[in-house]
Known about the structure:
Elements: H1 3-15, H2 19-32, H3 37-52, H4 56-69, H5 76-91, E1 95-97, E2 106-109, H6 111-124, H7 129-144, H8 148-161, H9 166-185, H10 192-206, H11 212-240, H12 244-257, H13 262-273, H14 275-285
Helix pairs in contact: 1-2, 1-3, 2-3, 3-4, 4-5, 5-6, 5-7, 6-7, 7-8, 7-9, 8-9, 9-10, 9-11, 10-11, 11-12, 11-13, 12-13, 12-14
Amino acid sequence: xxxxxxxxxxxxxxTKEDWNEAIHQFRIVTIxxxxxxxxxxAYYFLGVAYFQADDKDMANQNLSSxxxxxxxxxxxxxxxxxxxxxxxxFKKGAKRHLFGYEKLPxxxxxxxxxxxxxxxxxxxxxNNDIAAKALLSKxxxxxxxxxFRPSIDAYNQVIRKFPKSEFAATAYSLISRVxxxxxxxxxxxxxxxxxxxxxxxxxxxxxPRDEKIQKAEDxxxxxxxxxxxxxxxxxQFYERKKQPKASVLYYHTATIQFPDTKVAKSCxxxxxxxxxxxxxIELTTK
Length: 286
C-alpha cells in the first residue's frame, strides 16, 4: 500500500487500542519510508504503541528516533511525558531486550537507563513540570541505590528551579527521608543530624503551613532515637566487657545529646546503676 495508507491504518489501530496492529503498520512506515514526513512522524506513534503494549525498551528507542528525525517535533512535550513514564517503569524493574534487539527476550533490568532518561528530560525541558517530576524520580532512585549525596543534589535542584511549588515542598520532605535512611545505615555518624535540622529549618521558612513539615520532624526524632540507641548499645557492649567507666561515658553522652529520646531514659537507668562511675564522669565533664 502507499505510505499514507499504512500510516492511516496505524492511526486507526491506535484508536481501536489494537496495539499489535498499530506496531505492525507503523513499523512498515518507519522501515520502508523513513525519509518521508509520514515516516518521521510514525516513530512517535510507534513508540506510543510499544508503550501501550508494555514494551518500554522499544517504546523508548522509537521515541528517541522521533526526536532525532524531527527538527521541530509536533509531539515534543508529549514524547517526554512518555519518556518519564518509561524511566519510572525501568526504575521499578521493567526489563530491556538483550542488546537492544526486539526479537531477543526482554530480561535485563536497567536502572542506569532510567537515570539517563531522567537526565535527558531535565536537559530538554529544564523549566517544565516534567523536569521537576524527573528530578524527584531521579532522587528517589539514587536514594534506593544508597547514593545519598547525589540523591540530595537532585532534590536540591528541584528546590532551586521550582522554589515555591509543591514539587519543592515534596523535595524538602524527601531530603528528610534520605537523611533518615542514611542514619539507619551509618548509626555512628551523628554529623548527619545537623544537616537534617538545617533542611527542616529551610522547609519551615519556605512552606510554614505545609503538613509534611511534621512528618519531617518525626523523621528527625527517629534519627535521634537511632543515634541514641547506637550509644546505648555501645555502652552495653562495654558493660559486658566489664569496663564500666567506658560504658558510663556512652550513656552520659546519649543523655546529653539526645535527652528527649526514649533511649535516654534507659541510659539514665544504667547511669543510676553505675552511680560511682557516673559521678566521676559528670565531674570530669564539668
